[in-house]
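To assess whether ligand presence alters the predicted conformation, the chain was also submitted together with pyridoxal-5'-phosphate. Input:
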Amino acid sequence: MALLYYSSTRGEGERVTASKAVLKGLADDGGLFVPESIPALPDSLENLAKLSYRDLAMKIMGCFLDDYTEEELKYCIEGAYDEKFDTPVIAPLHKADGAYFLELFHGKTIAFKDMALSVLPYLMTTAAKKNDLKEKIIILTATSGDTGKAAMAGFADVPGTGIIVFYPKDGVSPVQEKQMVTQTGDNTCVIAIRGNFDDAQRAVKKMFSDKALAEELFAHGYVFSSANSINIGRLVPQVVYYIYAYLQLMNEGTVKAGDKINIVVPTGNFGNILAAYYAKKMGLPVNKLICASNVNKVLTDFFRTGVYDRRREFMLTSSPSMDILVSSNLERLIYEIAGSDAAATKGFMDELSTKGIYTLTQKMKDSLSDFHADFATEEETAAAIKKIYENDRYVIDTHTAVGAAVLSKYRAESGDDTVTVVASTASPFKFARSVLHAIDPSFDGHTDEEQFADLEQVAGIERPAAIKELETAVVRHTTVTDEAGMEDAVKARLGL
Ligand SMILES: *Cc1c(COP(=O)(O)O)cnc(C)c1O
């Protein structure tokens, strides 16, 4: 069978195998790697429904990462989806508020990023071997709070790799920050920046496409790669759990094979929802993909008007991992709806970086009908947490609550009562303060430690291991810089 190649959203030339795309992270022209076609589901839904999470991951990831041998993929998947997850189901569904919450936070760092970042280090080191890479891989990552920790947890002390994470100093939750600055592993490095996530992401992307820097690195025995969702190795593992959710609904008799479902995704960089879109393109029966934003609602406006306009105030919210105005992965959707036209895609992205705005053609806008988009205010988000707690005794985190609030509005407007899966992207313990405030502001005066105990009481569940670890964790990373100082910080770290 012919291999599935990946090409850049911005250039015609470069075609690489899956393992090369994983290694490189970003294409040389600054574009994102996309599969030249989206594979179809490898078997009937009935047969897939019999598989465990790992076996399903073998099948689905195998379709995309087809230059990895079965043995290599098995090694990656078995190494990733093991006891690091606190449930053998890996991604369980919880019924509440008339929907099914797909809990993606049972991994080591209690956010959905673990679903892909527990396997990415295996995919990357395997790719390095396959492609005879001699250089040390330096993972350069901008984080809105959760990617950084999950990536470091995956790459810590992995031979042949190093990782440098940049996070916005004032743009993450206390638990997120503590998780990052206490990271162990000699090959990990965490740097706070005075700026927001978009600043960090822009500077990281710039370093990736800086040819002189790449040469300097290479001369010192290093190559860069990415653990952000711009890496196809992040996206592919995320396709698996949407299919798994559907199969769980089949197995419990909620849907019959072929019935359509809706999927709600609290969105920031557009990676998680793009994975759901890929699942739909593979043939998963999906009606609407519901893109939920917080008040940084650039995507809501985009889907409604066909105009992407980042020229607006960046807001800090209680769902910090979604505080993003430049959603990188949207570029992959733009490429798709432009009919795989790299020149057109490059045109839009150039306009975005020079003018801060671009407008789709009418034809492209018309092909966005797979999506519904809306946003939730801070009040609506808090109200969703409170309502679901009071009605169902189920406590959701602030990001998931943005999704739940948008779903309520969508149902009221459309009358669509299709069975719906909501991607539940983080444990409420990661955002304990905001979650408890939403339930009852009288918790506000309590210390962080008291609040973990409060949340255990309220939610009726024990605090996850990731929270327990923080009690004794020692701060190891204290560097702070401006966006302008990021490149120097990287050079200093690598001894260039
Ligand atoms: C990263 C993140 C999101 C946003 O996901 P994208 O793939 O960037 O759209 C939502 N919720 C949480 C908790 C996250 O960590």
